[in-house]
Specification:
Elements (H helix, E strand, L loop, with lengths): L1 E4 L3 E8 L3 H11 L3 H5 L2 H10 L13 E9 H7 L6 E4 L19 H23 L4 H4 L8 E9 H11 L6 H14 L4 H10 L3
Antiparallel strand pairs: 1-2, 2-3, 3-5, 4-5
Length: 204
Amino acid sequence: MQKKVLDKGYVKLLKADKEEDILKVASICYGKKLVDLEKKKEFLIKKLMFEHAGNPTSSFEFVNFLFEVKCPIFVARQWMRHRIGSFQEISRRYVSDNLEFFVPEDLDEEEKTKYLEHIRLVENYYYNLINKGIRKEIARSILPLSLYTTFYWQVNLRSLINFLKVRLDKHAQREIREYAKAIYKLIKPYAPTVCKFLKEAIKE
């Protein structure tokens, strides 16, 4: 499952657990069989989701998701502030081809032309440095934050809820909000009850 985001980006869901696993884990706390808890699924998920000062309990940490993300570097750096998760990112120390750059939709035609001219100058100079034998890890230092990067992100549902609360909020930067919206849609089939209560808690 994949959602296109911005002009050249995307989020792809590679692996996903289901929210029923929350009840499987919680059943040991309550000393009850899973089948008994499933009868009260919506009530229990809501209770567990907001039990700790409005935050999910540790039961949510047993539900995991793996995403592949392509986004501008400035978005990725905001993303990686959410440190409870595992990241593996493409390295421009080893890879120098397939450079792609984010072009903001806010620009008028005149500014867009200047923006693209600047990007082409930087890109050409980057390849000139490499062709002259400059190491890739040094040549990459001139590349702008608009450069697209790709990474894997493995995250548990407890941390993912925190990410979505912060990045779907109306105060979050628009570009990363678009990625958060895509992720919300991708996980909804696997965690519909969680997404229902999450949507109610977010200030959009």
